Amino acid sequence: MDFGRISRRHLLQGSAALALGSTLGTRGAAAAETTVGFIYVGSRDDYGYNQAHAQGAAAVKKLPGIKVVEEEKVPETDAVEKTIESMVNLDGATLLFPTSFGYYNPHVVKMAGKFPKLHFEHCGGLWSDKDPKNAGSYFGYIDEAQYISGIVAGYSTKSGKLGFVAAKPIPQVLRNINAFTLGARLANPKATTQVIFTGDWSMPVKEAEATNSLIDQGVDVLTCHVDGPKTMVENAARRGAMVCGYHVNQSPLAPKAYLTGAEWNWEALYPKFVKMIVAGEPIPNFYRGGLKEEIVKVSPYGEMVSAEARKHADDVKAKFMSGEYTIFKGPIADNKGKTVIAGGTDRGQQDPELEKMDYLVEGVIGATA
């Protein structure tokens, strides 16, 4: 048996392991430092969703007096409960980041109830006042960075045809598609965005097929909202198209094709949360922010981005940073011609109507179902 490949959750499948865990969880060394656990649904080096969180964990490791334990490829099942119990009992973790969206209910909620003195922070904005108070939810307005990517894409496209490979037509994904398109049309009013939904968060074969299909239809700039953009980025670059990334900076995968991208900035947020916990400061149960709050960021511009595009994008970014810019400002029509935001109406980032978004804006070619 390869003991090096045994995960923490497997160690907890026997009563002996549980006894060992309770013993180690109280050892003196643990009391001298704070242990933080990170759990990922996929690989830490996926150039996507999981890598973004892993980069945040790497920043936490640099803090004095902090120990970080991690486990990757943990399914959104009771497997995450076993991993949490292991990190608590074997490693003495007192702050846990189960990062995948599907971990929260029922798994994180259940574990927060079981360990009321520990802290659980979950990515996705799902916490409600009915949930345990030692659980919290955080998320970012990454549509702001998608909007900036759209501006750059609008200047960079030669065909006027942009492409978006998306997982599912849920409000957060639609918000990103719409923000990207509105940004692009700010720069190029005739630009269109064609969307292909793959049906799930990680489907590399379908993502490759969607990328090729879009390029075959004349799209010359692509972006995405899937867990692992690597497939889209590499395939698009291979076909001679330009790309805007998502989750992390994918420019190493396609240095000549990469324009910019919408990134999570967990490297700033996670150390902040850990410092708050160590200092005994409460973290709000529902924590959100955008570019101004440094929860999201924009990838550095690639060599093909023009000076005009850079200036326009930087000007809008500065307005986001000062809190003076609204993406969803009426009048806005959907792609069927119906007015969805009336003239004179601003839907700021905290507007509950944006949480229910079920439409694609004018300029998007595609359907939400």
Automatic annotation (TrEMBL):
<dbReference type="GO" id="GO:0005886">
    <property type="term" value="C:plasma membrane"/>
</dbReference>
<dbReference type="Pfam" id="PF02608">
    <property type="entry name" value="Bmp"/>
</dbReference>
<dbReference type="InterPro" id="IPR006311">
    <property type="entry name" value="TAT_signal"/>
</dbReference>
<dbReference type="InterPro" id="IPR003760">
    <property type="entry name" value="PnrA-like"/>
</dbReference>
<feature type="domain" description="ABC transporter substrate-binding protein PnrA-like">
    <location>
        <begin position="35"/>
        <end position="326"/>
    </location>
</feature>
<dbReference type="InterPro" id="IPR052910">
    <property type="entry name" value="ABC-Purine-Binding"/>
</dbReference>
<keyword id="KW-0732">Signal</keyword>
<protein>
    <submittedName>
        <fullName>Nucleoside-binding protein</fullName>
    </submittedName>
</protein>
